[in-house]
Amino acid sequence: MERSYIVAVTSVLAALGAILPIAAAFYLSWSVATSREEARLTGLAEYAIKRADAAFGEATTALKTADGFAFAPCSQEHISAMRTLVVTTRSIEDIGYFENDQLKCTSWGKPETTIARQQVDFTTASGIGVAARVHPTISNGQTMLGFRYRSYSVLTDPARLVDVLISPDTRLAIANEAGILVSGLNNPDPALIKRLIAHPQTGADADGDDLFAKSNSSNWIAIATSSRASLLNDLGRERLLLLPLGAIVAALMVGLVFWLSRRRLSPLGELSIAVQRREFIVHYQPLIEMKTGICVGAEALVRWRRPDGSLVRPDTFIPLAEESGLIQAITDQVIDGVIRDLGPVLLADRSLHIAINLSAEDIKSGRVLPVIQDALASSGVLTEQIWLEATERGFMDVKSARATIEEARRLGHSVAIDDFGTGYSSLQYLQDLPLDALKIDKSFIDTVGLVSATSAVTPHIIDIAKSLNLYIVAEGIERQEQADYLLERGVHYGQGWLYSKALPAQEFIAFYNESKRVHGAGPAVIRRDFSMAPPAVGGD
Ligand SMILES: Nc1nc2c(ncn2[C@@H]2O[C@H](COP(=O)(O)O[C@H]3[C@@H](O)[C@H](n4cnc5c(=O)[nH]c(N)nc54)O[C@@H]3COP(=O)(O)O)[C@@H](O)[C@H]2O)c(=O)[nH]1
Fold first, then answer.
1. In this structure, are residues 214 and 232 in contact, taking their beta carbons and an 8 Å threshold?
2. Domains parsed from the chain with CATH numbers
3. Are 540 and 490 in contact, with CB atoms under 8 Å apart?
4. Residue 137 to residue 191: CA distance in whole angstroms
């Protein structure tokens, strides 16, 4: 469940990790190309407005100069002065003098036919009338721009207002603020220009397919446009740069996602997260006094409760936890769990004790003792009520093990050697270390009643423990026959499925209360006085 969830999340993240950087590269290249194109159009519009203002300024100056002429209208001097004005003013092609809206003379002389003055399309802010499309006979059919001031009109080639070089895919227009087009390059669409004048300064045309930029002066608006399609060239260059970058980031992200999920899915990754999430709980296997059947305590056995509620047995994760060093954090969670689960019961009943399994590292470093002290301090539970168990592996470094055991015993704990007989040096540890109890491994108890090589060992282990004045605990008692034998041989305590499997805290409390009801409470002091032999139970 959890695993398939992680696989699903990994797939989604990997897909996103692959798609997002590439999509971002596409978007970024489009956005960079668009910004660059907008900047180019803005520069163009700004330049064009300067050119338009310069040409219009020249035409205005010519008109106002002519308006100041004091010559007799259409006299030789007048015509000659107008001609000089045309020759010296770059942006006008001709100038005409009008009376009663009839052309009287131009820089060329007097017209041969009657020519009526063309109506203006609008008047600029500076008071110059503008006729956007004039077709004078002298222009040979070319549309001219007419500027008018009082009795004079000048003709200007509209191209003078957009006297700039642009690429064929760019269009340039000069219009007034009402959108009347007076000049353009590369055939700007008048309807589009009118629409764009209402738009913000630069950007994309919302209704069309164009990018545009505007620049204003007091008389004119210059608009430069280009189609989005013309961006594609630019885009190709940007993509060439950004797509490989996007692909590299995508590959890194996908790699990272897989690496993280592999770590998460690896047994060690799962265990580390379980430790962080404090997913460890404790079950309690009752410890029975063989002679009376009284439940005197329990062994705390850790369980890993997965988020889906399933319980994982310790054999599957304790070796990895010991190898990786996570065991210490797990031991701490077991200590917390014991106090949380059974603190009030231990406080109320001093005859009850709980045995906690310590790892080799806990024994070696001894750091677990202050942890237990801290946990006990706030609960009121006595140190004597917490037994400590460790396997031979914990005693391999005899010097540090001795220090930890001595300190533990000084504080009041009883210490037991667990799984006795399964290692190589069990006997030596018994001799060298000040232990309180010996737990005979289940493999020896299993042979009780059977004829086998190991079955002969069990009575010897019991005898050794007795000779060393140790409490003896038998593990894994499953049959009454085993219990009878062990009682007869003088084993003090037993645990096993004959009495109970390891139980969740509440069930253990119920088991303990029932045991007390049936058999009575155990002895109040459970710690062995090391100078005295443990009570004889039976046997020899
Ligand atoms: N360092 C720590 N080690 C721990 C801790 N909690 C448990 N352990 C060690 O994990 C090993 C497996 O423990 P578990 O699966 O809980 O099995 C225990 C009992 O349930 C089982 N048992 C007890 N009676 C019987 C029985 O009659 N039949 C049968 N088939 N199994 C039985 O034996 C295990 C108890 O073993 P022991 O500790 O040797 O008394 C085990 O090695 C645990 O020590 C922990 O918190 N820290």
1. no
2. 1-265 (no CATH), 267-519 (3.20.20.450)
3. yes
4. 28
Residue reference for tokens 């039976």: 538
Three-state SS string over 509-532 comes to HHHHHHHHHHHCCCCCCCCCCCCC
Q: 493 near 285, Cβ under 8 Å?
A: no
For the entire predicted model, the pTM comes to 0.62
Exposed e or buried b for every residue in 398-407, given b needs 16+ CB within 10 A?
A: eeebbebbee
ipTM of the complex: 0.93
Mutate to test the pocket of ligand 1, among 280, 283, 287, 318 (most ligand atoms within 8 A of CB): 318
**How far is the C-alpha of 123 from the C-alpha of 176, rounded, in Å?**
9
Give whole-number Cα distances, 205 to 197, 227, 329, in Å: 11, 10, 64
Summarised one tens digit per residue, pLDDT across range 447-486 is 987 766 666 788 999 999 999 889 999 999 999 999 999 9
Cα 446 to averaged position of ligand 1 atoms, centre (Å): 15
Q: pLDDT tens digits, residue range 22-65?
A: 888 888 888 888 888 888 889 999 999 999 999 999 999 999 99
Residue nearest to atom 42 of ligand 1 (CA): 315
* Inter-helix orientation angle 368-379/398-411, to 10°: 10
Taking the centre of ligand 1 as the mean of its atom positions, its distance from the CA of residue 202, in whole angstroms, is 76
User: What residues are in contact with ligand 1 under a 6 Å CB criterion?
Assistant: 285, 299, 301-302, 313-315, 318, 327, 331, 334, 357, 359, 418-419, 475-478, 495-497, 502
Query: Ligand 1, closest atom to CA 282?
Result: 46
CA of 466 to the centre of ligand 1 (A): 24
Structure tokens given for 383: 């140190």
Closest CA to 131 of 182, 187, 96: 182
Q: Which amino acid is at 329?
A: A
